[in-house]
Amino acid sequence: RSSAEKFEFQAEVSRLMDIIINSLYSNKDIFLRELISNASDALDKIRFLSLTDKEVLGEGDDAKLEIQIKLDKENKILSIRDRGIGMTKEDLIKNLGTIAKSGTSAFVEKMQTGGDLNLIGQFGVGFYSVYLVADYVEVISKHNDDKQYVWESKADGAFAISEDIWNEPLGRGTEIRLHLREEAGEYLEESKLKELVKRYSEFINFPIYIWATKEVDVEVPADEDESGEEETTESNPSEEEEVDEEEGEKKPKTKTIKEKTSEWEVLNDVKAIWLRSPKEVTDEEYTKFYRSLSKDFSEEKPLAWSHFSAEGDVEFKAVLYVPPKAPHDLYESYYNSNKSNLKLYVRRVFISDEFDELLPKYLNFLKGLVDSDTLPLNVSREMLQQHSSLKTIKKKLIRKALDMIRRIAEEDPDESNDKEKTDVEGSDKDEKKGQYTKFWNEFGKSIKLGIIEDAGNRNRLAKLLRFESTKSDGKLASLDQYISRMKSGQKDIFYLTGTSKEQLEKSPFLERLKRKNYEVIFFTDPVDEYLMQYLMEYEDKKFQNVSKEGVKLGKDSKEKELKESYKDLSKWWKDTLATENVDSVKVSNRLDQSPCVVVTSKYGWSANMERIMQSQTL
Ligand code: ADP
Ligand code: MG
């Protein structure tokens, strides 16, 4: 359109579009669920606004919160339309092309190293998946605060926006028109689209319609002219008479013909899964619901879920999930972002997915949904954020979340010390096998951050802690296992911190402990140093860093004698090293092979902590 205003895509967006266009990725289906998910988001937004201002919805068809899919086979156009919030001109510029979202570069990076296009929605750039199937896309949008505009792009680095003087007024909402590529013809088949909606968008909370064409049998009067024509083509007059006679007997003169009619056909069942009884929901349904909630459409299933309701003063229903994988930026943005992954609904109405009052930061890796009956509907988000019942909800959610995680461990045969239990075979067992290790590798750090941040649940979280140790044999061990293996008379839980297990295994601090058969925990993550400043004890046992002073291994009979005879040497050492370098020089029984070792004081930083602090200031 010549009158259009032209814009260039942000470089990153342009690169992303190139990747998508040139992708040989076979699963092009994903574009549809991304568009439906955007339509659903837009509907959520207008419904939320309507809680405080009914007017925004308009009247008649405009007030119908729905999604419509239409096919135009002749022109090879697939359109998806919603009556959501719509986009102003400024929104179109901002949302579809110019301001690169943080997700764009992260996703481009992922895709260049063989990432999965399936995860596009998780990176907040799902819209651009339209270019998997279309070479030209029009976005027609009408927001209450602006005129109707058309955004269009052939994915050639630029897009254009013009006031819409060509199309029918939308009232409110957005219509995305995909001009399908030659090889994407299958998306003009109703059956294909129906299948896709069933598969990927089953749990969208608004009705999705398709303009479906049906062939129906219709009785129509037999056509006089037609038989007249037949008469003239007939060459044998006697036969002609016979036909006439027969038809004369078959009254009334009607015939059945096939006729095509079209009507809106609804494709999904909008009954919310969380309102159903957990007994009635199948594992497959929970998995599918997880996928639509999290936009994680990888093959992997969630590691666990918990579906429950709370009654009493504060009523709500919730479904929580532990994803199979941590999102790409889980710890990157840990201290700067408050984004929780729970969606908050109030009486079935979506309110927000940016409520940081629902879960503490360290549980941000969970996905799910909370639907509250207690919270007020017609107040602003800010006011809701202050509502007193949120505290109660949060407390319950944490408790349920930690229970759910504990269950992953309990059901995992690899976790059990109990030989009998481990030997039981069965498909369920197979499925649960190794799940906790998987959990730990993805989210272990979150548990550690929880121990640091959540004093009230510290013990519960400590139970979930896993580590390698001098006795764990390459596997992960828990504190409970450690305690069950403690030597008689051993009072403290021993640990050592460092950069790797390999490095720690060579440590002189271990020599004697190992020889005497004490178990020592290896902590090799930088966060472990902080962790151990908060985790002082577990089940009445204190933690002792074996590179610090205070390691007690029972009395050595010759200790006093040795101290006496090495008194002069100790003094010489101390004077030679000078007080600014060492506090004291002591004879000790903690070594076996090495002649001496540098120990840090009880309340000072460990050598490993010094190393971490140094690397942070550099
Ligand atoms: P995400 O949905 O994760 O934000 P997308 O790339 O799918 O990322 O969409 C980008 C943005 O474009 C959305 O955040 C939204 O603001 C806007 N948008 C896309 N589709 C619609 C729509 N149908 N109605 C209103 N806004 C939309
Ligand atoms: Mg989206």
TrEMBL record:
Record: residues binding ATP: 34, 38, 82, 87, 95, 101-103, 122-127, 174, 381
Subcellular location: Endoplasmic reticulum lumen
Domain Histidine kinase/HSP90-like ATPase, first and last residues per copy: 27-184
One Gene Ontology CC term in the entry: endoplasmic reticulum lumen
Keyword annotations: ATP-binding, Calcium, Chaperone, Endoplasmic reticulum, Glycoprotein, Nucleotide-binding, Signal
Superkingdom of the organism of origin: Eukaryota
MF annotations from Gene Ontology: ATP binding; ATP hydrolysis activity; ATP-dependent protein folding chaperone; unfolded protein binding
Comp. bias regions, Basic and acidic residues: 248-258
Sequence ranges of Acidic residues compositional bias: 220-247
Disordered: annotated segments: 220-258, 409-430
Bilayer-spanning residue ranges: none
Main location: endoplasmic reticulum
Family designation: Belongs to the heat shock protein 90 family.
Protein name: Endoplasmin homolog
Organism: Aquilegia coerulea (Rocky mountain columbine)
Residues of the full protein shown: 76 to 693 of 820
